[in-house]
């Protein structure tokens, strides 16, 4: 690094009291009235910061629906501020696509708006079951930004399919059997044919297992029937050719399933299976070594009793 750049960086640090300068909270318009903030490709661990999944909002003539809120009240507040830069319409709904902490801990930032919190019919139970662990881990995960963290269960619980109206804009909410998680919900904006998949679709980032792998493969088949022109995945960029992205997830999950089953049939132990299963997918995904290791461990414990 040149001396000039070093001096510039030092000056910036001094001007800001030595603090690290945070990147601005960027929001892009994926379709008319549909806005998304892309999370970073980081693992959820100590100091991950709470900003790793895609979150955003949809605007109708009557009000706004938030789709996932981020991993801390601070991220939720930044999303709320981004909404207020675009519209003064009331925030009517906060929709959580599933239980994972990177998607739900921003809910608290929207309590002042008195929205209807929405989620899968299994979401409230999942939040209650994981509440103690998630809240205990928040300080380690996001540091001082954990202040005010709480798990807010859905008042509107979706089983099957149900529509909500934003005013001239209908959102179709669909609940799924256990797949990526036990509380997966998709949101289809019929006005723009935009599908928010939650973590049923990963782009670039290695898919992570916390539900039922065979159920996830079935959910992928269901997703293919939705007449969407673009998809907003739980992680990764918005995609127009989203069926190809689904193909990638399906290939990875199928490989994982087949390789773990084969390892068990061959009598391989867990550690040997971790080192070998789905290795053909290495190099095709971000964070592969970390996430695939967890996926193999999860699936080994499930499949060894088949």
Descriptive account of the structure:
The chain is 36% helix and 20% strand. The chain is of the alpha/beta class. It has a single domain (25-241), classed as Ribonuclease Z/Hydroxyacylglutathione hydrolase-like (Metallo-beta-lactamase, Chain A, 4-Layer Sandwich), CATH 3.60.15. A 7-stranded mixed β-sheet has the order 1-2-3-4-5-6-7, with no helix packed on it. Strands 8-9-10-11-12 form a 5-stranded mixed β-sheet, with helices on one face. Helix 5 (213-224) runs antiparallel to helix 6 (242-265), helix 6 crosses helix 8 and helix 7 crosses helix 8 (288-303). Mean pLDDT is 93; it is low at 1-21.
Features:
306 residues, alpha/beta, Metallo-beta-lactamase, Chain A, seven-stranded mixed beta sheet, 12 strands, disordered N terminus
Quick take:
36% of the residues lie in helices and 20% in strands.
CATH architecture, by name, is 4-Layer Sandwich
**What's the total number of strands?**
12
Can you tell me the CATH topology? Metallo-beta-lactamase, Chain A
* Mass-distribution shape: globular
Number of helical runs?
Answer: 8
Largest sheet: spatial strand order = 1-2-3-4-5-6-7
Q: What is the N-to-C succession of helices and strands?
A: HEEEEHEHEHEEEEEHEHHH
Provide mean pLDDT, rounded. 93
Tell me the radius of gyration.
20 Å
The share of residues in helices is 25-40%
Coarse structural class: alpha/beta
- Strand composition percent: 15-25%
- Poorly predicted runs: 1-21
Total domain modules = 1
Per CATH, the class reads: Alpha Beta
Largest β-sheet summary = 7 strands, mixed
């Amino acid at each position: 690094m040149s001396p000039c750049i070093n001096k510039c960086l030092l000056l910036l640090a001094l001007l800001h009291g030595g603090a690290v300068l945070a990147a601005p909270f960027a929001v892009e318009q994926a379709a008319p009235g549909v806005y998304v903030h892309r999370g970073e490709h980081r693992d959820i661990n100590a100091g991950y910061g709470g900003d790793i999944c895609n979150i955003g909002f949809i605007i109708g003539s009557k009000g706004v629906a938030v789709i996932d809120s981020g991993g801390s009240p601070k991220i939720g507040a930044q999303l709320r501020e981004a909404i207020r830069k675009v519209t003064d319409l009331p925030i009517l709904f906060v929709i959580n696509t599933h239980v994972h902490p990177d998607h739900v801990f921003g809910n608290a930032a929207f309590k002042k708006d008195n929205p209807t919190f929405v989620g899968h019919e299994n979401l409230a139970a999942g939040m209650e079951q994981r509440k103690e662990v998630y809240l205990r881990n928040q300080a380690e995960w996001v540091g001082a930004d954990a202040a005010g963290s709480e798990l807010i269960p859905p008042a509107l619980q979706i089983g099957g399919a149900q529509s909500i109206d934003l005013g001239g804009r209908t959102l179709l909410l669909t609940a799924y059997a256990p797949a990526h998680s036990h509380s997966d919900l998709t949101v289809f904006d019929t006005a723009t044919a935009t599908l928010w998949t939650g973590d049923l679709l990963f782009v670039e980032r290695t898919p992570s297992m916390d539900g039922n792998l065979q159920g996830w493969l079935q959910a992928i088949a269901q997703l293919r029937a939705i007449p969407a022109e673009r998809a907003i995945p739980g992680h990764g960029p918005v995609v127009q050719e989203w069926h190809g992205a689904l193909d990638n997830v399906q290939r990875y999950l199928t490989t994982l399933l087949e390789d773990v089953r084969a390892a068990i049939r061959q009598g391989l132990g867990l550690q040997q299976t971790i080192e070998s299963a789905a290795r053909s997918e290495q190099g095709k995904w971000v964070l592969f070594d970390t996430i695939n290791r967890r996926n193999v461990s999860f699936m080994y414990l499930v499949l060894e009793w088949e």
